[in-house]
Amino acid sequence: MTTLLSAEGLHKSFGKTSALDGAGIAIREGEVVAIMGPSGSGKSTLLHCLAGILPPDSGTVTYRGQDLTAMTDNARSELRRTEFGFVFQFGQLVPELTCLENVALPLRLSGMKRKDAERASRDWMERLEVDTVADQRPGETSGGQGQRVAVARALVTAPKVVFADEPTGALDSLNGERVMHLLTTAARETGAAVVLVTHEARVAAYSDREVVVRDGRSRDVEFVR
Amino acid sequence: MVCIVLLMSIGHALLGLLEGGPRHGYDLKRAYDERFGQDRPLHYGQVYSTLSRLLKNGLVSEAGVEAGDGPERKRYAITDAGVTDVERWLGTPEKPEPYLQNTLYAKVVLALLSGRSATEVLDTQRAAHLRAMRDLTRRKVDGDLADQLICDFALFHLEADLRWLELTAARLDALAEEVAR
Amino acid sequence: MRRVLSDLALGVRLAVGGSRKSWVRLALQGAGIGMCVAVLLLAASIPTAFGNRDLRDDAREVVEEGTGPAPLLVENGSVAFRSDYVRGEYVRALVSDAPKPPGVDRLPGDGEIIVSPHLADLLASPEGVLLRPRFPQKVIGTFAPEGMDGPLDLRFLAGDATIQPNDGNQAHGFGKEGSGGGLPTVLLMLSIVGAVVLLFPVLVFVSVATRLAAAQRDRRLAALRLVGAGASRVRLIASGEALAGAVVGLLIGFGLMFAIRPLADDIPLPEVATFPSDLTPTLPLTLVVIVSVPVLAVLTSVFAMRRTIVEPLGVVREQKPVRRRLWWRVIPALGGVALLGSQAGKFANGSKAESWPVIGGVVLLMFAVPALLPWLVERVVHQVRGATPALQLAVRRLQLDAGTAARVVGGVAVVLAGTVTLQMTLASVENEVRAEDQRERDNPSLSVTVNETTPLPELPGVLAGTQGVRRVETLRSTYATTQDNDHTSVSVGTCAALELVVRIADCADGRTYLVPSGNGVGDPKAGDTLTFAKTGGTWTVPAVERANGNVFGLYATPAAAAGLDLTGSHTELQAEVDTSRPDVVEHVRNALAPYSWRVHTIFYGEDSTSEIEQVFLAVRRALYAAALLTLLLAGASLLVVGMEQVRERRRPLAAMAASGVPRRTLALSLVWQNGIPLVISTVVSVGTGILLGVLVTKAFDAEVHYDWTGIGVVTGISVGLVLLVTALTLPSLRRATGALGLRTE
């Protein structure tokens, strides 16, 4: 399988504290990779650099042959909007929009008509079993429902990579497992790769392999498949 | 089963201790108790029966006898075969299952004592644990509720092990300092 | 009760809680509220300022009645100088301890004069050169403030031994019981409208100030809930925090008030310039300010928390807002229109508009703006579905909480509406004044009235001999009342004389002319019977022709006035002057200076365009300054709310930016979010302002005049303000949407 997204020799500091110190990683098409490590190890920073949210101080990030670090901010925004999907721990849904509108937002930003965008979004919400809360606002749903709405929003643009940063961090075991199950199943069905940052082994167990980040350095622990 | 594991690890533990240089059986017991014995010191009988088994398998050799009688006067040294055995033991992850911290702990300490990479030991174990968890997760996802409950039980225990592995990994530096003393 | 107090105290304690942040917040609150308090206190001083003027006026009044021979003779010697008016009296003491008017140490003797400081300045200045010949006396002192209306009063008191006793100049003393003129209605109305206009930004700012660092406060309150404080007690504690800000604001406000008070006598308008000591808030109004500001602060903070439930583990906001109801929101608007409308027709049937319904109507209409705005914004926003994502984000946000934005923008709207109203009133008044001025200049004439008691047969000759005087005619004038008890003047003179005061082309002996009054009320008609006050005789008004002139009244040619008893009438010399000579009138007045109090000159045709411009420019500037200040206050409120919103929604904003939502979309949604309420409020407030302006001018029976430039400027400023506020919010949006926004602190 071909490498989709890779990073080499990433360095990133916030003030005096160094978050990444020569980390590297390679994501292949369609695989689910868990990035693990103790808190403060730099795993979220690695995800942010990989996704082009944060420019690294040095090192390269390559997505399908393009160097992300050499792209403009706008080009990276565009890439994130069209090729990537994101699920964060919490607070990613716009509280004023209904769940359906939240899911439809990325499609509408890409210029799709409201009706078409909302129809496609409704399909995804059904798949993630949250079509019942389509017309409610995020504040009126449970945490698990909210995260599944976020997953639907991440997947609705048919992204090549879904970045999930502690997607179950604010959920109990049962809801967390449900989100992970639906996320990985849907990603495997659509062929999207998933980069999953988590510190929970049971969540990481949904992955194909894991990468451990320690003190800003990553190491592939295992390669299966 | 537990007993055998213990026995197995005592053999490897003694071998690991001998890597630092030949010792008397009595010294070995003292070193073992200091490092791993905690609330359960070894019996002399256990030491000598293990040593004789290692001798029989060619992993240790007698390195001279001091004046006097009795087995406690013999000095033992590790053979090349013994070193290889220790190496293989450290490099092989334990089968992920409950209550193996004694063995894992022994492995980490011995790796540190012998100047090998303790992180390697921990990561190897970690990978094995995660593989097991991944299999269980797959079984759980495909199975019925009973499967799910049984798998979850195992998953939670394995997760606890993993946490211990992580915590130990985070404390390796402190442990190395203590072992070196 | 004791627990209530201790809860409030705890709130105060939390507000001043030591950390630098809380001090900054308290200072901001205090400064904002302080500014408002200072303005309110100034408004509360207006009654004192004008009341004191009245009191001093009354204290100066001559007491004519008394027993025995009068100890003092007083003759009015007020004289015009260009467009200024120098008030003063000539006196002659008949006894050594004659009574003296307030503000002077002793009565001036013959050839001595006491002047006001401003008159002394004017006489000493190059501008006063032409005034000096009229005051040749020796200056022996200046008036103390109690003898003057204000610091810019032009006033004198001169001694003249030639005054002979007659019926009208006897003085037994000075000072009358206050007739209680009070504040002129228009001024009262303007100050009340001004106060209402100012009060809304205060209200808005106070409620916004209590929201400063609301998230922080909510966390504190949640912590209090966690240790067992009940929901109502938490509200009390929050009120205590608001109270602290209000009290600090009161202190700052009083400080500011006393700091700016000394500037009152530097105001360049004599009518407005006030002694600083007169600028003292009245006790009742001061008490109202002292009580109402903290109460307002507490009420708004409680009101603002109405839909916020502080739970032990955080703050919950109700998700589904209640639909706003229209019915009570239209009551002020309808009431205001009804009240003002009821007064509009009053002038037509001759009665006067009552001031209280007018004031009430204005205030009610002002209330209507902030009452209607939230409802209107909500209605409009509900219709919009959001064509673009940016618009959708903004609209959804407004749908969820239209109230906050509408309240703040409502503050701007009230200022806008009030300013538009004041501008229109001002424009209408200015228009009228200018028209009057123009009318006079079209028909320039110098009229010299001779004191009835002193025959001055040589005067016409003196006058005619003065340079710049073309010819001199004589008019006889007297006063009469109609049967409807309206007063009118009746002047009799030859066509040559009449032509100088009335614009008539084809005068012929035997005709009678009428110069109508401004509003046409009380004009005598042909056939009316006039009764003359001096003689008690009557005269039937013949057929009259309407004509333009400077002074309202009847003008009759000798043949038409046959049978009219002119006993007791006074002589008016009408002079035609060459207005092309600069200051010709002042030269004429100087020529008449030796007659001092014996003659009074009135010149119609002084070109006072520049003075009018100056006065209205000053008033307009003051209006703009006040409007700008309040708009800035509202802008600051908007900024606080905007920043708060960005901070509150940091996570979703950062997450959106991370998932590739262009920052432009987010910024645009901010512009929409402020812009939609702004456009609505601008439309509403300009509309209300114009409606109010029309109704007010109608109620005072002036011609409606639209000040479009002024309306445009103020509207432009408020639109610019919202754009500026949005622009200022962008950096914090940038910070929030940066990758660091995703990091949990």
Automatic annotation (TrEMBL), chain A:
- Top-level taxon of origin: Bacteria
User: Which UniProt key words apply to this protein?
Assistant: ATP-binding, Nucleotide-binding, Transport
Protein name, entry field: Putative ABC transport system ATP-binding protein
Which PROSITE patterns does the record match to this protein?
ABC_TRANSPORTER_2
User: Sorted alphabetically, which SMART domains does this protein's record hold?
Assistant: AAA (SM00382)
Its cellular-component GO annotations read: plasma membrane
Cite a single GO MF annotation.
ATP hydrolysis activity
What region holds the ABC transporter domain? 5-224
What PANTHER family has UniProt attached to this entry?
A: ABC TRANSPORTER RELATED, IMPORT ATP-BINDING PROTEIN
The record's Pfam families line, in alphabetical order, gives: ABC_tran
Automatic annotation (TrEMBL), chain B:
What InterPro entries does the entry give? Tscrpt_reg_PadR_N, WH-like_DNA-bd_sf, WH_DNA-bd_sf
Query: Pfam families of this UniProt entry?
Result: PadR
Identify the SUPFAM superfamilies for this entry.
Winged helix' DNA-binding domain
* Boundaries of every Transcription regulator PadR N-terminal domain copy: 14-85
Q: What is this protein called?
A: Transcriptional regulator, PadR family
From TrEMBL, chain C:
The listed locations are:
Cell membrane
Which residue intervals make up region (Disordered)?
433-452
Give the source's domain of life in one word: Bacteria
- Main subcellular localisation: membrane
Task: Give the GO cellular component terms, alphabetically.
Answer: plasma membrane
Tell me the ranges covered by the ABC3 transporter permease C-terminal domain, including all copies: 193-307, 625-735
Q: Which UniProt keywords apply?
A: Cell membrane, Membrane, Transmembrane, Transmembrane helix
**Comp. bias (Basic and acidic residues):** 433-443
Answer whether the UniProt record assigns the keyword ATP-binding to this protein: no
Q: Which InterPro entries match?
A: ABC3_permease_C, Membrane_comp_ABC_pdt
**What does the record say about its membrane topology?**
Multi-pass membrane protein
Membrane-spanning regions, if any?
23-46, 186-210, 242-263, 283-305, 326-344, 356-377, 622-643, 676-696, 708-730
Name the UniProt record assigns to this protein: FtsX-like permease family protein
Organism, scientific name: Lentzea albida
